[in-house]
Specification:
single chain; 881 residues; alpha+beta; eight-stranded mixed sheet; five-stranded mixed sheet; binds phenylalanine; binds zinc ion; hydrolase; protease
């Protein structure tokens, strides 16, 4: 583990390196505790660089065995080496020379899961962002593009499959039962895209013919016996390849495309050129073991990594400050793909919910940073919701601002102009400016300025003048190290909804540029006047969630109710109802905190019942509408002095009220939605299950709810229904024989399937209430749990901290104390995992005083620990700052 040096990396310090590495030849002799790595690097001095410039290569915990230049060993006095750095003071004067480096690494002891490590006996690598330097000394930065040839040697019995990037060149037998394979990747790539996999794996094969006729061999490698579980992923891959040709004109460029599923992985998956490595959670699925959400995630992540082949690999990032160049853009692309494969509005609402749940708290707390940060201490800590999700929203806004044709022209230009290069956000924006002739300089602030902009909106109707006026004021709240903000360009999609539910047509508008249903907010204040308006409209704002902002709108409850039933934009329609629910829940939680009983209007529960039973609406949409705002969402809306217990009680009371007011009709619908036996993971099937399970959640609050949920569990024919019933039982009927029985039956059925057991850990870690911290502590000794597997840690400890407001924020601070211990425990093996886990405390300052003090004490205890990793120290110190 690297301990913190306090070094801060700054965007403005970027400078091209003195040397380039046009060719990289690697050979690996694999062994668990002493893998020999030989790197032959063709080094080239950049034009104009003095021959006296030293060559400084990055390392991380390396052991140097041998060093040669052009075949001659280097004298000890001519270089300096530490595990983290190799400096050759006087490289040869020739422009080009060959540097041979031999290092030795121990994959079996690599618990950080960066560099070369072993997962379930399979050798695999993870190099993004700075893992390659844990394999050999290198210019480990994304603007060094090199053509790789890789030879892998291993005992044939242990590792019949030997994989690396690019196309297979050659393979053969060696002495003593060893064999080898050689791979060549013709596309110059940065070191973070290097990958190697060797092991004994089951293989699923298929084929894809690209639009220009290239035949591509597709392979998905999984644990033996799990081949069937890769069918869905393979199907998603082929659909992704086709979609990228159709929608972005991007065609695949190698003869093979391989995906390997491993069980120990820090993130979701990795886009290594021609050899994607996946967390197996995002590959393996069937009806018995995966929920509809799992299927949707697999589809999205398979697409995401595949799409990186162009946005990330063919065009990569100049430096890590530009991470959003590949990530924000690729998330946007995978969102569009999923929207095309499933229901566009439902997908969009789900995106909005995710953005609010993950990115808003980040942007509104101590970890806020611009989509393109200017500083970092540890780049691993910048794989954030802001870079990914807000980064995607920014790309979406470019499309909204330019329109779909100019957007596509800009993309085409970007892909053509920068193919084979390491680019910047400026390059990206310039392509859109050049293709459209538009000026995006104010828009560019979305990349440079942190914080969630807010629009305060009010409106008035003047019947005599037939005019409707909207007053808009923008503000961007201060964020760490950015106290003063500049005015942004916010594309605000809107509609003036008439009594018949149709959008009203206006004669003219003044006060802002308004085109194609979008108000372009660019100034601090706009007073926008629409003329020729015959009646008072209901104002629908931020349709399609056109901008990632918060809105403070003065709006009549009447209008919100009307929009909940009639807005033609499904996202705004969902939002109108969700806002009604949120307002009611905030009021109720205040009442509860004041010692009163919460009061809800009859109309709200009636509206919930209507939406549930409105067959004109998509089932998945109805399920989303029925899901009450989460406790964390409500807390975020309240903003400060948060009492999680009051919020929980308010939410329970409203759920109960909705269930009681609509019992018979919800029950009737629940019966009608019964399974017809056939399972299909597509949007229609998933929508039906989502709605039925949302109904179960309400019905479980009524008399006999526990036995209804127990029947649902017993009769479930797929994991979606089974997991939903298990959650309802464990959360709403904790401790009953039905809940205990279901947990036991689930455990015995899936004891040998770690990915499914994660669901079992997750359900228990999220049981509301003060006692859960004890349950979770006990489960850390369960035989299925392991502190060194990131999926296990996230399922149990991560869920407890992120998805259990009443348990984690227990008033006596025990939740935080336990969590602090777990973070430190994880950190000893895997700093990246620990740092990510720790971000669960990012909103600690918004808690009420008692909890806030206890949370601070835990953060101080972590930061007071000696020898912390850069990863964890960076996160904890920023949270405390
Ligand atoms: N680049 C990966 C993705 O988003 C994420 C990742 C980052 C994976 C760092 C591993 C390590 O597709
Ligand atoms: Zn990505």
């Amino acid at each position: 583990m690297r301990t913190d040096t306090g070094q801060v990396f700054k965007l403005e310090d970027y400078r091209p390196s003195d040397y380039l590495i046009p060719l990289t030849e690697l050979s690996f002799r694999l062994s668990p505790d002493a893998t020999e790595v030989k790197a032959v690097l063709t080094i080239e001095r950049r034009d104009g660089v003095a021959t006296t410039a030293p060559l400084v290569l990055d390392g991380d915990g390396l052991l140097l065995k041998k060093l040669e230049i052009d075949g001659t060993p280097l004298a000890q006095s001519t270089y300096t080496v530490t595990p983290d750095r190799l400096e050759i003071a006087h490289p040869p004067e020739a422009k080009r020379f060959k540097l041979t480096i031999e290092t030795e690494v121990a994959p079996v002891h690599n618990e950080a899961l960066m560099g070369l490590y072993l997962s379930n006996g399979v050798y695999c690598t993870q190099c993004e962002a700075e893992g390659f330097r844990r394999i050999t000394y290198f210019l480990d930065r994304p603007d060094i593009l090199s053509v790789y040839t890789v030879r892998v040697e291993a005992p044939k019995a242990e590792a019949p499959q030997l994989l690396s990037n690019g196309n297979p060149l050659e393979r053969g037998e060696m002495a003593d039962g060893w064999h080898y394979a050689v791979w060549h990747d013709p596309f110059p790539k940065p070191s973070y895209l290097f990958a190697l996999v060797a092991g004994s794996l089951g293989i699923v094969n298929d084929r894809f013919v690209t639009r220009s006729g290239r035949e591509v061999e597709l392979g998905i490698y999984v644990e033996h016996g799990k081949e069937k579980l890769a069918d869905y992923a393979m199907d998603a891959l082929k659909r992704s390849m086709k979609w990228d040709e159709d929608v972005f004109g991007c065609e695949y460029d190698l003869d093979v495309f391989n995906i390997v599923a491993v069980s120990d992985f820090n993130m979701g998956a990795m886009e290594n050129k021609g050899l994607n490595v996946f967390n197996d959670k995002y590959v393996l699925a069937d009806a018995e073991t995966a929920t509809d959400a799992d299927f949707a995630n697999i589809e999205a992540i398979i697409a995401h990594e595949y799409f990186h082949n162009w946005t990330g690999n063919r065009i990569t990032c100049r430096d890590w400050f530009q991470l959003c160049l590949k990530e924000g853009l690729t998330v946007f692309r995978d969102h569009e793909f999923s929207a095309d494969q499933r229901s566009r509005p439902v997908k969009r609402i789900a995106e909005v919910r995710t953005l609010r749940a993950h990115q808003f708290p980040e942007d509104q707390g101590p970890l806020a940073h611009p989509v393109r940060p200017r500083r970092y201490r540890e780049i691993n800590n910048f794989y954030t919701a802001t870079v990914y999700e807000k980064g995607s929203e920014v790309v979406r806004m470019i499309r909204t601002v330019l329109g779909p044709e100019a957007f596509r022209a800009g993309m085409d230009l970007y892909l053509k102009r920068h193919d084979g290069e390491a680019a910047t956000i400026e390059d990206f924006l310039k392509a859109f400016e050049d293709a459209s002739g538009r000026d995006l300089s104010q828009f560019a602030l979305w990349y440079h300025q942190a914080g969630t902009p807010n629009l305060t909106v009010s409106s008035a109707y003047n019947a005599a003048a037939r005019e409707f006026t909207i007053e808009i004021e923008q503000s961007v709240p201060p964020t760490p190290s950015e106290s003063r903000k500049r005015l942004m360009h916010i594309p605000l999609a809107f509609g003036l909804v008439g009594a018949d539910g149709r959008d009203m047509v206006y004669e003219s508008v003044e006060g802002a540029t308004v085109d194609d249903g979008v108000i372009h907010v660019r100034k601090r204040r706009h007073s926008i006047r629409f003329s020729g308006i015959a009646e008072r409209p209901a104002l629908s704002l931020n349709r399609g969630f056109s901008a990632p902002i918060t809105l403070s709108v003065e709006q009549k409850t009447e209008d919100r109710i009307f929009l909940s039933g009639h807005d033609s934009d499904p996202v705004a329609r969902w939002q109108a109802f969700n806002t009604l629910l949120t307002e009611a829940l905030i009021a109720a939680s205040r009442q509860i905190r004041g010692g009163k009983r919460p009061v809800f209007s009859d109309r709200l529960s009636a509206l919930a019942g209507q939406i549930a039973c409105d067959d004109a609406l998509e089932q998945a949409y109805r399920a989303l509408a029925l899901a009450l705002p989460g406790e964390a969402d409500i807390a975020r809306e309240i903003g400060n002095d948060i009492d999680p217990d009051a919020i929980f009680a308010a939410r329970e009371a409203l759920a109960k009220r909705i269930a009681e007011e609509n019992g018979p009709s919800l029950r009737d619908l629940y019966e009608r939605l019964r399974d017809n036996g056939e399972f299909s993971p597509d949007a229609a099937g998933a929508g039906r299950r989502a709605l039925r399970n949302a109904l179960l959640d309400y019905l479980a609050l009524l008399t006999d709810g526990a036995s209804l949920a127990a029947d649902h569990f017993r009769l479930a024919a797929n994991m979606t229904d089974r997991a939903a019933a298990l959650t309802v039982l464990a959360h709403r009927h904790s401790g009953t024989p039905q809940a205990t029985g279901a947990l036991a039956s689930f455990e015995s059925r899936y004891a040998n399937d770690p990915l499914v057991m994660d669901k079992w850990f997750l359900v228990q870690a999220s049981v509301p209430g003060a006692q859960t911290v004890e349950t979770v502590r006990r489960l850390t000794s369960h035989r299925g749990f392991s502190m060194s597997n990131p999926n296990r840690v996230r399922a149990l400890v991560g869920t407890f901290a992120n998805a259990n407001q009443t348990g984690f924020h227990r008033a006596d601070g025990e939740g935080y104390r336990f969590f602090g211990e777990m973070v430190l425990e994880a950190e000893r093996r895997n700093p990246q995992l620990a740092a990510r886990l720790a971000t669960a405390m990012r909103s600690w300052r918004s808690l009420e005083a008692g909890r806030r003090d206890k949370a601070r004490a835990t953060l101080l205890a972590i930061s007071g620990t000696e020898g912390l990793s850069t990863d964890l120290r960076d996160i904890v110190e920023r949270m405390l700052a």
